[in-house]
Amino acid sequence: MPVKVLLVDDDDAFRSVAAIALKSAGYVVLEATDGQAALELLEQDRPDLIISDLSMPGLDGCALSRQLRASSRLAEIPLLILSAHVEQDGISDWSELPADCCFSKQGSFGRILKRIEELTSHLK
Amino acid sequence: MVDSAKAQKSDYLTLRTKLFLSSALLSSAILIIAAWVINNQVVAQARQQVQAEVETLLPLYDAIWDEQARRLAALGWTVANSPIVKTVFGDPHAARDRETLREMIADAGPELSEQVDLILISDGAGKIIYSEMQRAIVSEMTEFAPARAVALSQTQSQGIALLGGKLFRLVLTPVLLHAGSSDTYNTLAVFGTGSELDREIASEIGQRIHSDVILFAADRLYASSLESEAEALAARTISSSEISRAVATRPVELRMGGELYLAFSRQLVGFEGQHLGQVVMLRSLAGASILFRRISNLLLLLWTGSIAVALALSYLIADRITRPIESLVAGAREFGRGNYDCQIELAARGEIGHLARAFDQMRQSLKQTQAALLKSERLATLGQMASSIIHDLRNPLATISTAAEVLSQDGLPPERRRVLIESQLRASQRMNGMLKELLEFSQGRYALTLERHSLPGLLRWVVQELSARTLRAGIRVEMLVPEDLFITADAERLRRVFENLLVNSIQAMPQGGTITIRAACYNDRVRVDVIDTGPGVPAQIRDCLFEPFVSFGKVGGTGLGLAIARGIVEAHGGTMGLDTAVSSGADFYLELPLAAAGEKEA
Q1: Which of residues 58-87 of A touch B (CB under 8 A)?
Q2: How many Cα atoms are found within 13 Å in the side-chain-facing hemisphere of A22?
Q3: ipTM score of the complex?
Q4: pLDDT above 70 for B535
Q5: Residue B450: Cβ-neighbour burial (10 angstroms; 0-12, 13-18, 19+)
Q6: Are A14 and B392 an interchain contact pair (Cβ–Cβ within 8 Å)?
Q7: Which of B132, B284, B432, B519 has CA 20 to 30 A from B406's CA?
């Protein structure tokens, strides 16, 4: 059973590139343009992992993270924050975000894929 | 501005007027007080002087009066003792008819009738047998009580008498005949000689005592040394004054026809010692008035001079005060507008000079502080800009690098390869657009290519361009723009302004809504409103909305969009703002000048 990843980003260009990168690595990719769209999608589908941008109009990454933790059904889904505002992987400037889920948009996308691999290995 | 300048102008005038009024008032007050004091002094002095004169005049008057009395008395004796009188009255059988007596009088004294105005002759019992008044026989007079008294007392008597409506000073002298025995005399007759107290007498006395003399008896004026008009006035004044009633011993002040007089009097006493009237002597205080008037004229001249000096001084002082203040105010106003190089006049002396110098020091210190502040602000802005640019450039950079990473893999399907390359292109275009925007903003100027354009055409182009995005977001765009609106504008730039506003609205309404574009003309300007039904602009950023690097949860922007949009609109001679009057959603508006008629459409 293929691993399903939800990709949330309002930047169309980056989202489509990241989606292709994920698909090329063998994941099934769901896409949402912001936090609100992601939550609506999550009502019908349950991905194995969520990758979200931080700064988005409407419901942003932090708010999405809060909503997920608050939901009994979705709290267990691993969340990765991927943002231009994160300077360095594993360092969070936002108290409500666990540092280990924060990744910078800079650098190789390969390390993101590696982290996803680690988080979803038990599913394969 | 004009109003406040006017108000300030009038303030200066008030200051000048105040200075003038206060100095004029002060000098007027001083002069009025001086005039009052001088007047009092002069009048008091004059009164004293006149009183002192009066004190020497009264004895003089008495002397004149007594001398006349003595003359009359002497004349009386001369007549009574003349041989012809003795002859006529000594012979009991001598005829005493009027003609005889008349001849006797003519013989008795040389020109007696010329010397006196009244001649009375009574018999030994005091019965009047002859009376002549101003050389005319008065036949009806038979009784005169004092004559009987003199006939009895056998002594000469003198008094004032009112006879025939005239006032006389009369001397009654007995004609005595030795009765044989040693000390007894028989009264043969009584001779009365009188002179009328008339204008002539009054004038004579008046001349000698340098005063006006009024003879007043039984409540009427009999004679005076005054002109007839002044006489009537004097009669009225004296009859209503205490001097006509009481036996005044002290001089009394009288005001007559605006002139001040000092009046003093001597009694007119009848034969029985009764009060008949008085001689009122008036001494004018006009000398004092004239002196005072002269001083007053001098004071008036002085007052006019002082007012002129006060006027000149107040203008001079006011000029000295207000000119530096005006300079200060102008400087402060320039300063307020942000011109820190404004020069103010520092030459003024005194407090104003201190103020000016203190102000200038403040200006210099503020100028330095401002320069330092501007520098640090520019640095802060640059820092903010740098950080914002770095973040904003990271998104398209991440897109490009991630796409490159995926593209480097082998066996990628051509469809995916195409999407990746397109994304890279789009991202780099976006980066280019952002850098261009940044460059324009940092240069702060927009080179406009102005041409006449149809405003609805321009708006339709932008709406069409963004139709894919509005369709996807479920946003309806409503155009309420009249067709015949033309503006002179740089179409490319203005399209970006509208695009910026529409994109903001689209991003504010991810769940769909309505964007209304409305345009209306006001005079020679057109106002365009872009109204959305989104959540509106948060209150905390409304004030700084058009400042650079203010964005609210937007992606892919430099935070310069609205700042640049406003810059472009202002470069077109327009204004741009947020209408906060709407209750929900956002209403961005811009106002542009309409193109003049006749310009050719591009």
Answers
A1: 58, 60, 84-85
A2: 24
A3: 0.92
A4: yes
A5: middle
A6: no
A7: B432
